[in-house]
Amino acid sequence: MNQTIDALLGHYSVRNFEDKALTEEELALLIKSAQAASTSSFVQAYSIIGITDKKIREQISAIAGNQPYTVQTGQLFIFVADLARHQAILEEHQVDTAALETSEKWLVSIIDAALAAQNMAVAAESLGFGICFIGGIRNDVGQIAGILDLPPYTMPLFGLTIGHPIIGKEKAKPRLPQDLVYHENAYQKMNPATLAKYDEQIKNYYDERTAGKRVEGWSEQIARGLGRKSRLDLKDFLQKQHLNQK
């Protein structure tokens, strides 16, 4: 293995940061790293909004579940699926913008943003920073869009908080066995025995991490979390933003 792979395999989310802002040089390097990610057909259909104002961070934190690490951190980034630039270009060139309102273009913008964010995350961890993705901003995408003054053809996807970690005893959370994730030539049905073994591994992980306060397998966690409907405003928001219409 090498340092890059060691860093990837050792990843864990950090939720406790020093109250120390990233430098302009560090920010520029992280953004440059994000922009170096692959992008579909060179479309570059995303924007990154850095939140330096702590009052705005507090507003975002309240929506995202009152997570303190979105406020006390080096920098909070919001990744936005962004086809607004492309809409302006198409209008300038007198090209019909209807093609932007398709599911395909929406997916392109989401994938572009996700690839850029992962590049930034890897770059940050390679520099010794801690990171945590913030999906809670989708608890109220309309309110987040208002706070960030987002135009049509955009959608706030997730946050990424990066900072100087206050070192704890965290370790990488065990991922699914490769047998359940990697399929050769065709999709394979899940092996219940493999899943059961993984559930036991996750139970032990949570038991050790929380000193017995949380003991549940991955299947239990998934059944509890995905068994309830959530964020049902997304469809209306997408229609309002002229995204994913066809």
From TrEMBL:
One of its GO terms (molecular function) is FMN reductase (NADPH) activity. Residues 10-164 form the Nitroreductase domain. It holds the Pfam family Nitroreductase. Its EC number is 1.5.1.38. It is an enzyme of class 1 (oxidoreductase). Signal peptide: none annotated. InterPro entries: Flavin_OxRdtase_Frp, Nitroreductase, Nitroreductase-like. PANTHER family: NADPH-DEPENDENT OXIDOREDUCTASE, OXYGEN-INSENSITIVE NADPH NITROREDUCTASE. This is Oxygen-insensitive NADPH nitroreductase. Belongs to the flavin oxidoreductase frp family. Keywords: Flavoprotein, FMN, NADP, Oxidoreductase. NCBIfam families: PRK10765.1 (NF008033). It comes from Listeria farberi.
